[in-house]
Amino acid sequence: MVVLSAAICTKGGKALMSRQFVEMTRIRIEGLLAAFPKLMGTENKQHTFIETEAVRYVYQPLDGFYLLIITNRASNIVEDLDTLRLLSKVVPNITGTAGNLSEDKVIEYAFDLLFAFDEVITTGGHRENVTLQQIRTNMEMESHEEKLHNMIKMSKMESARDQAAAAASSIKAKQREQRMAGLSSSDAAMGGSSSMSSFSSSSSSAQANVVTSAASPVSSSSATASVGSIGGSNRGVKGMSLGAATKTKAFEDALIKEDKLAPIAAAAPSKAAESAAAVAAPAVIQRPLMLALAEKVSAKISKDGNVESCEVRGSLTLTAQSEEISNCMIKLKPLSAAVNQSFSFNTHPKINKQVYEKQNILQLKDGGAGKGFPSGRPVGILKWTSSGSPDDLAPIRINCWPEEEGRGQMNVSIEFSTELRFVKNLHNVQIRIPLGTSASPNVVNADGQYKHVSASSELLWEMDLVDDRSFASASLEFSIAQRDADAFFPIQVSFSSEQLFCDMDVIEVVGVGSNETVDYGLSKSLSSEDYLIG
User: Which of 18, 273, 339, 432 has an alpha carbon within 20 to 30 A of 305's alpha carbon?
Assistant: First the structure.
């Protein structure tokens, strides 16, 4: 038998839903369904059929509607009736309306009915040997792995919720203790100040006699000042005084010298104080003159792994700490012929370009007769850009293959390869793969480290070091609920290195006029910028 179409329609011929199992145009199926009421007889039979020159209608009344299958005339009528009987059981089972089927229910469960019809009849119009229970099981699509994943997910959420509640209660308890400690310390300070004032007034004369009678190098004026600060006269007790620490320190030094005691070691600062000081302290220039060689790599690579464009932009910046140091000239390392062919160089307009091209020396046009380079801020004095082939420059290439597995699942295979012709190693390589969904991917195989960033809906693939021995090539494979293959693009790549594409280096920095060598510091850095795949 060959079933051309299965449909649910009204008695007037209006199609509520229809599923075609062979290649048919919309005009033809609409014409067949529109002709059905005109061909139908007036008798109310349990199972009826109508034959035309081309097709056969096999139908059954169903709560004011007709469940209809259209077959060719060569189809077995007995098998057609058996298929119709099974479909008549499927419809109320899916919609949950036994005896009260309505148009709204059919429209609401239209897709479920289509999936159920596909379980009964295959593509091509042939009947599957299935039962109603098997159809129901296939429709539910229960997965043990999914249930296990949901259980683990709920367990993690509950654990995180418990940890957050415990942390919140701990914070509240600490805040409560701090408030109690603050109240007790303020009470103690108030009681201690009143007792200290009475004690100091009674013992001031005794302490004054001790200080004045001692054979000390402290002068009488300083001793009197010390007694005044220690004894506490009839003036009211004040808070902390800025000068008290200095006077107390002088009094302690006098006693140490008198009794020939060892000096008291100062308390070492805590690690917390050291770290806080380190954070608060601004970055300072370590050398009088700092030079920085920096390069930025940007690339556009197609989804197939072909390098469409790749550009390397570099610069040499100078930061002088003073005007004397800024009046200098920088001698650079001569570059090879291959590097000169691969890059084009541009000097600052105030740099003597002829001297640079002949002697590889960067100096101002006036030869240092006037002022030197600006001081106190970075100044760019040389720039270069790549002029070679993009295929030779791109250090990282990625090939991404999304493949549809069915049932809304996508399998993604990513190949990572390196072309380290100019730079021999890369650090902190990060590959950000967009997922187009917040669902967690199932990683099957991965070289290096990876983590799912649900906030940005992406998979982060990381490698600390990439060179000829570590991750010269790598792969990542995962599956995820996704139907759109373009959702995994564009892929963003970031990396850094202490090596440069352009083998630029500084030999010496010499002061103009004095010809004395200037102490300088040099840093080299390479980083990615807009390195995209897809």
Answer: 339
Question: What digits encode the pLDDT tens for the residues 423-437?
Answer: 888 999 999 999 998
Residue/partner pairs of 136-139 with CB below 8 Å, 24 or more apart: 136/93, 139/94, 139/112, 139/115
Calpha distance 274→279 (Å, rounded): 9
pLDDT digits (tens, 9 = 90+) for 139-164: 777 777 788 888 889 889 988 988 99
Q: Which residues contact 244 (CB under 8 A, 6 or more apart)?
A: 229
Q: How far is Cα 461 from Cα 476, in angstroms, rounded to an integer?
A: 8
Region 433-453 average pLDDT: 91
Residue that has been written with the tokens 């993009």 in this structure: 390
- SS3 label, residue 128: coil
Instruction: Judge if the upstream peptide bond of residue 402 is cis by omega within 30 degrees of 0.
Output: no
Give, for 189, the enclosing helix (H) or strand (E). helix 144-213
What is the rounded distance in angstroms from the CA atom of residue 145 to the CA atom of residue 152? Answer: 11
Q: Cβ(446)–Cβ(466) under 8 Å?
A: no
Token pair of 222, please? 């300083």
Do 314 and 525 form a contact (C-beta atoms < 8 A)? no
Using the structure block, give the residue that is written with the tokens 């429709």: 139
Pairwise CA distance, residues 523 & 498, whole Å: 8
Beta-carbon contacts of 143 under 8 Å, excluding residues fewer than 6 positions away, are none
Of 272-276, 410-414, 427-431, 432-436, the least confident = 272-276
H/E/C letters for each residue in 288-354?
Answer: CEEEEEEEEEEEEECCCCCEEEEEEEEEEEEEECCHHHHCEEEEECCCCHHHHHHEEEEECCCECHH
Q: Is the pTM of this model over 0.85?
A: no
In terms of residues, how long is the chain?
Answer: 534
